[in-house]
Each structure stands twice: as C-alpha cells, then as structure tokens.
Amino acid sequence: MGAWKSRGLRYSEEAGHGVTREVRVAGAGLEDVNGVYTLAREFAGAEMFEKDGGGSPLGKVYIRRQAEGMPGDWVITLSADADSVRSEHLYRRTEVRKEQVFPPLLGWKPCTAADGVLERHVDQLSKGLPKLEYHNVMAERGRGLMSPLEEWDQQDTSSSLEVCVVGASNIPDSYASKLHCTFQVPGKDEIMESGAVANSTDPVWRFKAPLKSWRHPDPLQFTVFANSNIKIGETTLDYTAFRETGFVGKLPLSLFGSDDPNATVNVCVTRPGQLIPGVDVVLKKELDAKIGIEVAIESKTSLSIVKIAEGGLIDRWNGDHPEQRIHLRDIITEIDGTRGTCYDLLSRLAVQDEPRTIQIKVQRASRVEA
Predict the structure, then answer these.
(1) Alpha-carbon gap, residue 89 to 58, rounded angstroms
(2) Which residues contact 205 (CB under 8 A, 6 or more apart)?
C-alpha cells in the first residue's frame, strides 16, 4: 500500500515498519465489548477496528462506520459488513462529521430493542456507556517490536513507579492519638511510611514516594495503622488496575475486628510517562442550563476548578456518576476537543450555543506533592 497518513502523522510500510493504532474500549455495559481493538481494514471510506472475542460468546466485535443511508454514523457491532443485520449492532454514535475517519471517543449510546437488538443483550448494554482511547503501537515486519506497555513489563527497575496515599475515609472511632499509612509490595522488605496525623475518621496524609522494589507484575498493599503499630485495616491494588492508565481513586479497606464496608483509602499510582488518570465528562446542556463551575488559571494550558455550584450540570454529573465525581482543584485540560492556552479553554466555556453537548477532559487533583 506504500505510505499512509493518520491523524497528521505519516508512516511508511515500505520502510519495513510502521505504526498500528489500537483502540481501547472501556465502560461498556456488555462486558465482552470492552478490550483492545486493532486496525483491520478500510471500510466505507473509513477505518475498521476488530476485536477477536477469544472464545467469548460474542465472537468478533467491530468498530466501524455504518453504511451510507443507515441511521447513525458509527457502530460497535458484531457485523463485519451487512448493515441490514441491525440486531447485531450493540452501540452507536451519531452526529459525526463525514470526514472523520476514526471512531469518536465519547458520546456512544446503547442500541435498544427498538433497533432490533437481541433481547438478551438489551439490559446489559444499557448499564454502561463505552469510552474509547487510542494507542499507537510500533510493529516491525518480520518481528514485532514491543508496545510501550510490553516494554514497561520487561523493565528490571521501577524506581519511577510513583505511589501516593492521599488519605482515608470512614475510619472507625478509637482511642488512638495518631494514624499513619504504609505501602509495599507484599512479601518484600521495602516499606514506605507516611507521617502520622491526628486521629480522625477521615485522615489526610498526602504522602508520595517511589517504590523501588516493585517489579512487574507485583500488586501493591496499603495498610493503615493506629499509633505506632496497631493495624486498623489493609487493602491490595492488583497490577492490572494500574498497568495501562495508572490508578487514582478509593480502595475498600478491610478492617481488623470490624466488617464495616464503608472504610476506604484514597491512592494514586502512576508509572513513567503516565498522566494522572482523569475523567471524560459529557454534559447535555439544555436551554438556560448552567455548567455550574468557577475556574482559575492553573497553567498556560489548563484551568483549575475552584467552585462547583449546586444544581449546575457538573453538580448533576457528580450525582449521576459517583465513581467519576469532579472535585475542587481538579484540572480542566480539554473542552470539546480543544487543547491550547487557558484562554482557549475559557472561550470554549463561554460559548452560549444551546442546546449542545459539552465534552470536558478533567485531570484529577490527586497529583499531590510529597
């Protein structure tokens, strides 16, 4: 095929190597849809991505543009070609520009029984909304070059694996005077220990350090102590939870002497080159609706959220998405596909077109300084 262009970059097959774009799907209610899709072939003037089900009931799943004249622009489907088989469509994304030749990242909606979807799929589909991410994977003809994740797996050292313990929530009342937290690889001698803070049901440590003894695919163990050596509870974070995009959020804390399920520890784990994991927010702005935030300039290319107004779209997002809540000090890095200066972002926030869909990329404020 010679050389081909993709998203402003040019790669040559004739040179014996190139780049394959992979699409990672997460958040789908039908679990077998989630996973990594590789570029398969051109379809209807666009690209089609394919996921081999590997023995799953779905078999092969495709992401592709729908044939001209059919409702919807892009589909995640079991059908490789025949759009007449609408029952095989799982998710679709409408209102996409015709010139867009790669799948949209956000805005996917589940197909319904009215679309002809098989009844056994309908309930599962409705339980999630897929989100797509792109990865460029180097591949050399004759022998494969490792992807960045595979290279990371093969590294012998993890001196740059950053682990941060932000705090904990719903710690049981006790007579202890101080609380602290440790993290380590289970069974290894290196133990990183936060400073002690006053006893509280919601202690805050904001402790960050590299864990040099970590090796692929070690899990991480977090333990909360009262006073100097009384274990309150512990939890484990599996490698798969932070391998691809890092991890930030709350982990359930298994308490010693209590079966209270509400105790958690808030952590952030990133490997070299990873950004702090963030949230892709999709807001449906109707007539007279307010986004409901106040922002301040965080850097030349980002905005910091300093106030969330009650009843605004962000406040409603937090109520509808408890696992993806937006917090004060979280950082806005992109709006409606626009990255640029902080003033570019401010101008996008000020757009008054109604109604419209607003897509905001938010980076967590768990980028805590040690």
Answers:
(1) 12
(2) 165, 166, 167, 180, 181, 194, 195, 197
